[in-house]
Amino acid sequence: MDGLRDSSPALAFEKDALQLTVEDVYDISYVIGRDLLKISKAGAQVSDLQFRIVRVLEMFEVLVNKYNLSLEELKMERDNLKRELDRVVGEKSAEQGSTLGPNQLVVDLKDPNRPRFTMQELKEVLQERNQLKAQLLIAQEELQLYKSGLLSSQPSEPAMVDVELEPATTNSSAISPKITTITEEDESKEEAKNDSREEKTTIQKLFSFRRK
Amino acid sequence: MAKKTYDLLFKLLLIGDSGVGKTCVLFRFSDDAFNTTFISTIGIDFKIKTVELQGKKIKLQIWDTAGQERFHTITTSYYRGAMGIMLVYDITNSKSFENITKWLRNIDEHASEEVERMLLGNKCDMDEKRVVPTARGEQIATEHGIRFFETSAKANINIEKAFLTLAEDILNKTPGKEPAADPMDISGGNTGAGWKNKCC
């Protein structure tokens, strides 16, 4: 226990050189100074050596100080860079998925009106719509033709005649009476739209031969 | 099968910036009506109107295109089949007029060489908001050797005249003027046979 107070500064000699602090240097100076004092009693010629040792210890102090400061700076620098790296990596991963080029668009998957179909699909749908529209127009036109053809009862409608003369399921002669029947029914049942009685007959005719 | 109700079929196309009134111009011609609510055309649509010129019944199949850029891949595929193209701008919208050169370039790139072109400055009823002078329309039309009308679908100015003039110009270019071969070919970007067959 007694020696602890004394030996404590001397422990600095046992430390790893790179672990030394300025305090350790001061401990070393203290120990060396004390030992020199013992020697100096023996002869005055040690005083030159004493100054040199002090000088070396001062240099030692500066070097240790400098080393520790550099180490501290490097550690701080390292920690700063580490933090910076963490921040950048964090930002990057947060942005992941939403990072966009100049020609890209964000789509909100919860938006019921979000774009879902390709231009090709739209093109096909439009083409089909227009095709059907054209067919409807042609059908309407043909219907008009049939109507007017039968209304004026001109024999100049070969298409009409052809169709009518085509053999039906039973026999072709049955068509005419059939139409007559329908017309009669028509007259008796409906509160005749007086303007279109003949036209109705035409439509009835159309349907009657289409039934086959 | 059925007898044709017309002697010739002409395919026309309306192009121009979004909102200049292409659909309204067509609606006025086909249905003699006008609607103020703006509904952007989706891709491409068409209407049919039969007219009589020089004693011939001519069925006009008029394609109405979307002006919006996003539909261009669809609309440009319809250029080739067109025998007549109406380029429409809005006299109250200078950008739509500036873009006429762009639309003319589109025609050069995608339409048949023989296509009959016509320039329309629409909305001429809104003279108080006019930003494109009539002379500028006339000038660009002259430069490109095409006809020019200022029209108003709303006030029914020059609409029928424009369509009939375009149809007549096509009719006068049609040698023989024999009946159209195929009734209402609907496909876009097809062979453009309409013209070619009649020219050769």
UniProtKB/TrEMBL annotation, chain A:
Its main location: other. Pfam families: RH1, RILP. Residues 190-202 have a biased composition (Basic and acidic residues). Residues 8-91 form the RH1 domain. Residues 168-182 have a biased composition (Polar residues). GO terms for cellular component: centrosome; cilium; cytosol. GO terms for biological process: protein transport. It is found in: Cell projection, Cilium; Cytoplasm, Cytoskeleton, Microtubule organizing center, Centrosome; Cytoplasm, Cytosol. Keywords: Cell projection, Cilium, Coiled coil, Cytoplasm, Cytoskeleton, Protein transport, Transport. Residues 57-91 form a coiled coil. Residues 166-212 are annotated as: Disordered. Residues 114-184 form the RH2 domain. This is RILP-like protein 2. The lineage of its organism: Eukaryota, Metazoa, Chordata, Craniata, Vertebrata.
From TrEMBL, chain B:
Keywords: Cytoplasmic vesicle, GTP-binding, Lipoprotein, Membrane, Nucleotide-binding, Prenylation, Protein transport, Transport. Its main location: membrane. CDD domains: Rab8_Rab10_Rab13_like. Its cofactor is Mg(2+). It catalyses: GTP + H2O = GDP + phosphate + H(+). NCBIfam families: small_GTP. This is small monomeric GTPase. The lineage of its organism: Eukaryota, Metazoa, Chordata, Craniata, Vertebrata.
